[in-house]
């Protein structure tokens, strides 16, 4: 079936470096994409989102890039800090109809910050 | 800052027993979601409510799972009887409306262990 997935289960970066987390999706009907951060024992926390009519969106220290041609999504975190250590999920919404808009999540990438 | 509340935070139950989880969404949020997150994976949607009505329960195992939101505010998810494979984190989320226009806010989750 169609799904949203991530390329790497674990990403280790040095504190202060930039991090890039990738995500591939297969549902060409997906219209809305979100990145979530989940710390141990907590629920997912919204980071940034992007709609399919955009290819880039920037937030505070984060940038999301969307390449619809190859169905690829990435999250860039600038100047990674220890507090960025978490599991990062991409999620998508294809709005199948009837008001349904639950998110489809990928498996997650565990970002580890090395001191 | 308003948050989604869930209880209990942890629950251990024996297989074949009944178990229930409670969620109180952010005040004013019309849409409520229940997700299940197996360890090491992304959340999977179980059911979506718009006010007191079920919008999407296509992924809810209806032979043992039930969900209700009788007054369109708080919600209960029940499993009866619980099976070993039900061990997971159960997450509740809420949004003002359709997630394409409104962010989904997640609660801290209920960690269920079935023995």
In short:
The complex is a heterodimer of chains A (115) and B (115). Chain A has strands at 4-6, 10-14, 19-25, 32-38, 45-51, 56-58, 62-67, 72-77, 86-93, 104-105, 109-114.
Structure commentary:
The complex is a heterodimer of chains A (115) and B (115). Chain A is mainly beta and 115 residues long. Chain A has a single domain (4-95, 104-114), classed as Immunoglobulin-like, CATH 2.60.40.10. In chain A, 0% of the residues lie in helices and 52% in strands. Chain A is built from no helices and eleven strands. Chain A has strands at 4-6, 10-14, 19-25, 32-38, 45-51, 56-58, 62-67, 72-77, 86-93, 104-105, 109-114. In chain A, a hairpin with a 3-residue loop joins strand 6 and strand 7. The radius of gyration of chain A is 14 Å and the shape is globular. Chain B is mainly beta. Chain B has a single domain, classed as Immunoglobulins (Immunoglobulin-like), CATH 2.60.40.10. Chain B contains no helices and eleven strands. Chain B has strands spanning 5-7, 10-13, 19-24, 31-37, 44-50, 53-56, 65-68, 75-79, 88-95, 105-106, 110-114. In chain B, strands 2, 4, 5, 6, 9, 10 and 11 form a seven-stranded mixed beta sheet that branches. Chain B is globular, with a radius of gyration of 13 Å. The model of chain B has no long low-confidence stretch (mean pLDDT 94). The interface between A and B is medium-sized, with 29 and 27 residues.
